[in-house]
Amino acid sequence: MPDDFTPPDTALTRLRESVPLVHCITNYVAMDLAANVLLAAGGSPAMVHAEEEVADFAPIAGALTINTGTLSPPWLRAMEAAADAANGAGVPWVLDPVANFATPYRRDASQRLLQRKPAILRGNASEILALAGQSGAGKGADSGDTVEAAEDAARALARQTGAVVAVTGPVDFVTDDTRAARVAGGSDRMPKVTAMGCSQAGLMGGFAAVVPPLDAAVAALVLFAEAGTQGERASQGPGSFRVAFLDALAGITPEELSNAAHLTWL
Ligand SMILES: Nc1ncnc2c1ncn2[C@@H]1O[C@H](COP(=O)(O)OP(=O)(O)OP(=O)(O)O)[C@@H](O)[C@H]1O
Ligand SMILES: Cc1ncsc1CCO
Ligand SMILES: [Mg+2]
């Protein structure tokens, strides 16, 4: 573990003590789950995307999260304005470039946002490969590539942009270029529930409001791994898993996180 790293159990305690306001610009599919994930874990979400108000809202939040899932020109203008306002106010922000490999419009939009220097970049393997300029086998919002195949791309993106880069999948990979870790656990029901990744980006925002970016990304990955593991035990399929996952997020104690063996430093 790096010397100055805030472990996930401490990060969770801080999240629940401060209940940070998280400004979320996310897609129509994810809004409900992303808000409920933040509430269950210990944050205060606000879904605010009008271009007329985002620049006033981002500076009063503890963090901003931007997800391009249901992108259109007014949304993209709002995302750019919000990121600029967050940067101006020293508010950390998270980028989730959904399906950026699918169309030139999404590819260009994701690059424009990435140039605005997010503190954390989170995506599935196909999205991270595409951001690094490589072609993969993604299908719409779903990844078609392994996490291992995107690790070099993640390291290169971290080096080039200064962002902490998280690649999610059965075993997640996260790096700030100098440090790297893997997070195992969770459930194979997670990719069967839409917007789990989008919601995780929201949660990374919650943690980024209370701990540094690498520590925040790791805490969100570890909390998802543990809640997924517990949620699988208490569910019968994707529908009951979604409910059990939220219950687990709310019920997990810092002690349970410190005892869970999901995190391996490389
Ligand atoms: N097969 C799996 N086993 C365990 N955990 C998984 C599996 N697939 C995904 N996850 C977990 O699900 C969460 C979301 O990751 P995923 O890669 O599915 O995001 P995504 O493709 O961006 O999702 P979406 O776009 O639907 O929001 C992460 O915490 C990841 O670890
Ligand atoms: C299914 C879907 N389509 C656009 S965004 C989204 C949510 C998962 O990324
Ligand atoms: Mg996604």
From TrEMBL:
Coiled coil: none annotated. The keyword Membrane does not apply. CDD domains: THZ_kinase. Its EC number is 2.7.1.50. Signal peptide: none annotated. InterPro entries: Hyethyz_kinase, Ribokinase-like. Substrate binds at residues 47, 195. One of its GO terms (molecular function) is ATP binding. Pathway: Cofactor biosynthesis; thiamine diphosphate biosynthesis; 4-methyl-5-(2-phosphoethyl)-thiazole from 5-(2-hydroxyethyl)-4-methylthiazole: step 1/1. Keywords: ATP-binding, Kinase, Magnesium, Metal-binding, Nucleotide-binding, Thiamine biosynthesis, Transferase. One of its GO terms (biological process) is thiamine biosynthetic process. Belongs to the Thz kinase family. Catalyzes the phosphorylation of the hydroxyl group of 4-methyl-5-beta-hydroxyethylthiazole (THZ). This is Hydroxyethylthiazole kinase.
